Amino acid sequence: MKRLIGLFAALLFAVGAGAADIAPDVLVKDVTTEVLDIVRKDKDIQSGNTKKTLDLVETKVLPHFNFQRMTQLALGREWRQATPEQGKVLVDEFRELLVRTYSKALTEYRDQVIVFKPFKMAPTDTDVKVRTEIKQSGGKPIPLDYYLEKNDNGWKVYDLEVGGISLVTNYRSSFAQEVRAGGIDGLIRNLQAKNKSGEASTKAK
Amino acid sequence: MKTKKTATRLKSAVLALTLTGLLGGCATSGNPKDPIEGFNRAIYAFNEGLDTVLIKPVAKGYDAVLPTPVRTGVTNFFGNIADFFIGVNNLLQGKPDQAASDLGRVLVNSTVGILGIFDVATSAGLEKHEEDFGQTFGRWGVGDGAYVVIPVFGPRTVRDTVGLVLDVAADPVSNIDYVPTRNSALALRLIDTRADLLPADKVIEEAALDKYAYVRDGYLQRRRSLVHDGNAPREQFD
Lengths: 205, 238
What we know:
The complex is a heterodimer. Chain A is α+β, with helices and mostly antiparallel strands. Chain A has a single domain, classed as Nuclear Transport Factor 2, Chain: A, CATH 3.10.450. Chain A is built from 7 helices and 5 strands, in the order ααααααβββββα. In chain A, a hairpin with a 2-residue loop joins strand 3 (about 140-150) and strand 4. By secondary structure, chain B is mostly helical. In chain B, a hairpin with a 3-residue loop joins strand 1 (about 145-150) and strand 2 (about 155). The chains are: A alpha+beta, B mainly alpha. The interface between A and B is large, with 36 and 40 residues.
């Protein structure tokens, strides 16, 4: 690990750039390793301190996610119906829902071993898939794939697939149904209600 | 004896499918993949109820009481039994290398792994696969068909329901002749599988606005990915 960091620092130095130039696979690996290390050492998180887990995800993971893109993907063509203000609220609410889900998954699966699959990309690629696997005893490993795209601030995750199920597009048909039934505002209300109930159960713990 | 049992089972599956079709006629809600949503939601609610009052509590107790190595041993044992037909399906899908690996797993795990309790094959580099007849049909180009929720078994598509009938007919555990042994083995396998899903459960609760739709869309995505062995082309949206 130390060697890797050394190598990495050298590379960074060589190109004379900041975090924006971290390769997508290295980014996924670094963040995953760091976060899981913290989760495994932290007794509070393990005993179900959701607030602390949320904070961890907020500071370590979120900066690498593009929630605007995620929300657009989840809404599909319905996105065009949203006014800029509605769009902003949607992104915020969807972000909270995903963070909560991701934190839950992190706590539930913290003891599993993550394997990083070999990664190849062309220097000109701006949209890539980084493959990892969750090993589980007695079963087939679960693939966990990250989709990243490059923008001005470096590589950002815009989709996550667990066992072939996208955490983002899995909402598409139900979101569309909500919009058909109650418009964009109806969907916003439902998301807010869901997040409220999530908050309530966090506090109860 | 065996053929008779299989025939009875086939008959009840056909009956279930017919019923599904009949009842489905009256309940639609607009999702093209789920034309009988009303009926499916009813069965889904029934399954959830069964899970809440019976299966999940037992699985929780099972998970709490048994030490992890024992639990893994049980999962491995049933996994080893399943590996044989996973190999057959890989062969049917034109993947002889994977089929050979699956049969190798059965050989190694049944012997060195003491009746499959230890999964030594994975450590030896023979990775476990996940195949069934529904996936084989998918590989052959058979489309999903409508989404169907089956009592006890849960989410399927029409294609996967036909696959399920074959899976059950071929399943060595379902074919144990001595009924009490068969039923205990089936129950143990069900509980063990359910216990493995307990963490996923909590994540879904956290994620879903409408759990029925979330499970449905997740099932459809998952099957699509499995048919392509994890390399499904990304769905293109506008």
